[in-house]
Amino acid sequence: MTFSVHNLSVTLGKSLAVDGATVTFRHGKVTAIIGPNGAGKTSLIRALVGLVTHSGSVVLDGHALSTIPVSEKARRIGYLPQNGSPAWNVSVRELVGLGRLPHRNRFAALNTGDHAAIDDALHATDTVHLADRTIDTLSGGEQARVKIARVLAGNPEWLIADEPLTNLDPPHQRDVLALFRAAADAGQGVIIILHQLSAAARIADDVIVMKAGRIIAAGPTDQTLTPEALEDAFGMAFERVAHGKQVAILPLA
Amino acid sequence: MKHFSGVLVLMAAFFLSLVAGKVWIAPIDWFADNANGWIMAELRLPRAILGACIGASLGVSGAVLQGYLRNPLADPSVVGVSSTAALGGVIAISLGLSPFPFAMIGAASAVIILILMAGRSGGPLGFILAGMVLATLSGSLTAFLISISSNPFATSEIIAWMMGALTDRVMDDVIVALPFMVLGVAALFTTARSLDALTLGEDAARSLGVDPFRLQWVIALGVGLAVGASVAVSGVVGFVGLIVPHIVRVFVGERPSATLLPSAFGGAALVLVADSLVRLIPGAGEVRLGIAMAVLGAPFFFLLLGRIRSRAI
Questions:
Q1: How confident is the model at residue B122 (pLDDT cuts 50, 70, 90)?
Q2: ipTM score here?
Q3: Looking at the complex, does the CB of residue A12 fall below 8 Å from at least one CB of chain B?
Q4: Alpha-carbon distance B131 to B123, whole Å?
């Protein structure tokens, strides 16, 4: 199963947000997209979800994304946008249940399969004990896990997340990364935008480095997440530090 | 039964609306062959049915608009449908014609303009801005028509009509208005799941399969039919669409789809109770329903806001 873009360009207003990107994402792997602010990372993944008009092609398993019916697309691709609190103070269970919408008929209530998927998602994100609480009673870390549970509940083939670690402390970052790793190991394709370079080094199988709308490096993590590529992308020096099995990427001020 | 209490409240309000008035009519007199039986069949019953339908239309429209715009201050007046329908009615009255078809044309033009202005890429922001411009424009044109009206009877009729009332409505009014309201409310109910998805924001909702353009025109059409017909038959009755969804959320939670049916029951009950009170206030004429609703609704809404604020702090 593959998900790829060919010569993809996205124009926002008068500026070119993504400029001729070509890349293939691997199923069952974690792909991290990194790059400075405004590099076109969000536009790239919004094109993958079909949220933005573009030139070039987005192809899912040999079919152009635009030819796949909306409901099927919604079942196969789960998308977690950047930040943003839910508009209404619903319960955790209701929020996670929204991930089941693409699987339900228009007026059908949640069936046993839906409830099972919601329970699984709550388990996976360790939020079972929060199920009956409302969103406004949760901490930032709890909210982040619940939002991921919402995407997991849809059980999509592809999980696409935009900066899912924002506002999380180190232990919660670790937990959220472990969730994405587990999803990939369970066979889902995971594509996440990350600003935490050390986290990318630790979790990602593949890394895409973007700069000014272009992909300047793409491939296995140890070949792409190099100090040279990072310096090119961010315009500052980095050092890769190995600590046992762990790798940290430090910006050199 | 989840909606049992809602149905119960509505039935109680409907009963109250049938018995209460300048003349109290006990159930045994409802089918009597006398003046009371005539009042029941010719006046009270159509008035109660219309009140319930108008209340349900306004309640559901308010709940859908608040869900769609993700804004608890939204109601049918912010998208301009009420005021364009009112303008249509006012034009008809000043020409000495029946207001209903003209008010529906007014509502229809609001719907068309809303859909055109909001456009394919336009989100809720374009929708609400277009609606506010429509509301302001038609409000001004209405005031202009009143100011140039040379006939003082027409002027007073216009002002009375705009304030909203169910006085002297007959079964023919029900038959004309009901199909529009039923169609509109039915269209609005189809948006339930899209509104739920919008809780997560526009991008997430689209990723869950919501078509924002389709949603926009279904809402414009539904509100246009339901609220347009309500205004056309009773004038402008405010506050219902604003406060009913808030009351409902206290009982059923904030998930938009869960508020729709209770808002229909609640809106119907509120209008029926207010319209009964209007008939009970002593005096030669009747207090206009729209005014009674505002007088009842405003303090109630302040109470509610106080509660919401104290909970948030």
A1: low
A2: 0.92
A3: no
A4: 13
